[in-house]
Amino acid sequence: KFLKPDIQISADVRSDYDNSFTDIFQDPKDWTTKDYLNILIPMSYYLHEEPVIEDINNTQAFAKGHAQVNVGIATTTKIDTNILLRQIDAIRASSANGVGIFESQSLFGGGYDSALKLGVFRYPAMVTNRDHEQAVSLMLKDILRKIDDIYLKCGGMNDEEARKYKKLVRDMKVNFKDSKDAIKSADLLKENLEDLIDVIDSDQTLNRQVATRINTDLISLVNIVDEYISNLKFMANHEVKEFQVIVPTKALKDKKEALLKVRAVFDHNSSDIIYLDNTQYKITTSDPNVAAVDGDVLKIGEKGKATITIEILDTFNLNITKGVHKKIRFTVKVE
Prior knowledge:
Layout: E1 10-13, H1 20-24, H2 28-33, E2 39-42, H3 50-63, E3 68-74, H4 81-93, E4 98-102, H5 104-109, H6 112-118, H7 132-152, H8 159-170, H9 182-202, H10 208-237, E5 239-240, E6 242-246, H11 249-255, E7 257-259, E8 261-265, E9 273-275, E10 281-285, E11 291-294, E12 297-300, E13 304-312, E14 319-320, E15 327-334
Parallel strand pairs: 1-2, 2-3, 3-4, 5-14
Antiparallel strand pairs: 6-8, 7-12, 8-9, 10-13, 11-12, 13-15
Helix pairs in contact: 7-8, 7-10, 9-10
């Protein structure tokens, strides 16, 4: 993320969160709550829908406010088609942000694709993590479409209710991306979405099935905005306290050359560090005859002294604490 702040990171994980670290060295709770991930995908490869719902609830319990949850289900298990469709319905009803199906050969070879095209996947999917603002706008428009084409026409809403909720949806200000304070603007949108959810929940005259369907969509929108905010906060909260260079002195002594590594430290009292890419710093030497630099490799030459300087470049994207030096110097002495 510090190389490409807009990059989206996802992880397919085993959903036995209490034992996954010791069993398979996965720690999804830690990765998610530290905002390393944008999308978390529990692998819920079951033959019934109940354990899928349980996985969703367990995942959302710690992922809410941090990452979008897409749920992985499987056709490799030769699941009954009707149960697969019920699993997808349950995933959507839980306000998860997407469905992933493992894997393509069994999906098409087993004929599941035909049932999906006719039903739950008959419309193109909306990408919710590429352009968050566009995704929110499109989903709000889709709520308006459902009010007119489904809830009103099928008797789930009367004209007055339709006008009321269409106005509340249209009043949502979706312009957080280009704001001077994107986090604050996105937080405000989230509050407005949650207020609308509360209004719908407290509306005793509104058809309960319609209320549930609208709020399911609104909760999905909150999840999208939450993930956007957490990504911005990840970048804002990772402030570099110090830059360090790792010099393998034994390799220099034995082989007369060694690979230098430059790293950023976020907290002096923890192991929270990142190693910089070589596009983010420049290494120079005061005397290439004594100590030459070839890319990231330091090569020892004739006797003498040379000063090695490592300069952190503007291509390093994370915040740096005021007063932190962006140049590291050390001396090489050859006898």
